[in-house]
Amino acid sequence: MTVHDIPSTSLSSDDVVLITPIIGAEIRNVRLSGNLPEGVIAEIKSRIARHKVVFFRRQDHLDDAGQESFARLLGELVPHPTQHIREGSAAILELDSGHGGRADQWHTDVTFVPAYPKYSVLRGITIPETGGDTIWANTAAAYDALPEPLKRFADNLRAVHSNAYDYASHRPWATEVEKKHYDEVFRSKVFQTDHPVVRVHPETGEHTLILGSFVQRFAGFDRFASIKLYELFQTYITAPENTVRWRWKAGDVAIWDNRATQHIAVNDYGDAHRVVRRVTIDGDLPIGPDGRPSLALQ
């Protein structure tokens, strides 16, 4: 079916195809642009809140300007705090596998700042013939799956997130080019933020887990205990039944609720070239179940 502009102000139920019951839906018959009707944008936001990540195939008409024009309908664009944006763009970050951009650890985007992005909009540019998928996990469903004693424990737990972590120990297989890229670009300015491990989603009211690879330690715990706690929580987040995997094609667009997901780019494509471009939407300050907000430490 040819992708087209939707003439009405809302999506038909036939245009939304669930990928799994827990996370992920493909939205069809929508040509993304900066002039979509308000009703369609409202429905897209509603679907993101419900399914956590939504996918659009065959958006080959989009260039950088078109991606940003559409993304502005979701909120205010916010550039990455340390990495360079693409020349001529307002906030587009290019992730190029040839320059260290593989993002092959479970993470939520930019949690080392207090009000990290609420949405991320990712567009496939150059996609390997095989491999290079992205997997997303539902952190609200992960919280719901915790045993009650672990929920109560998490509700009162805080964690320090930073972009200044030991990249080599996290990725011992990384090339020297990737390590140098991380040190020179990603750590050009160091951030540290104290987050609640559980945040109350400002729109859905769900409790979601704020974790991922930017976590340095848990408040009140030493490094060894922090690692064990992290592994425990991540087991629930990345459980297979809690994830969705997307096989990219050039021109695809994925949009996710960065407040209720983690994701990882699967690094299985060797020397093949993979390029994706991301724009993020300004977020809100996380609030824990106890009413305490996130706090910048550095």
UniProtKB/TrEMBL annotation:
Any GO CC annotation of this UniProt entry:
cytoplasm
Q: Per UniProt, which keywords does this protein have?
A: Dioxygenase, Iron, Metal-binding, Oxidoreductase
Statement: the UniProt record of this protein carries the keyword Oxidoreductase = yes
Domain TauD/TfdA-like positions:
19-280
What highest taxon heads this organism's lineage? Answer: Bacteria
Q: Which Gene3D superfamilies match?
A: Clavaminate synthase-like
**TM region(s), chain numbering:** none
Cofactor(s) demanded: Fe(2+)
Q: Which InterPro entries match?
A: AtsK-like (IPR051323), TauD-like_sf (IPR042098), TauD/TfdA-like (IPR003819)
* Alphabetized GO MF terms: 2-oxoglutarate-dependent dioxygenase activity; metal ion binding
Q: Which family does it belong to?
A: Belongs to the TfdA dioxygenase family.
PANTHER family assigned to the protein according to its UniProt record, in alphabetical order: ALPHA-KETOGLUTARATE-DEPENDENT SULFATE ESTER DIOXYGENASE (PTHR30468:SF5), ALPHA-KETOGLUTARATE-DEPENDENT SULFONATE DIOXYGENASE (PTHR30468)
What name appears for this protein in its UniProt entry?
Putative taurine dioxygenase protein
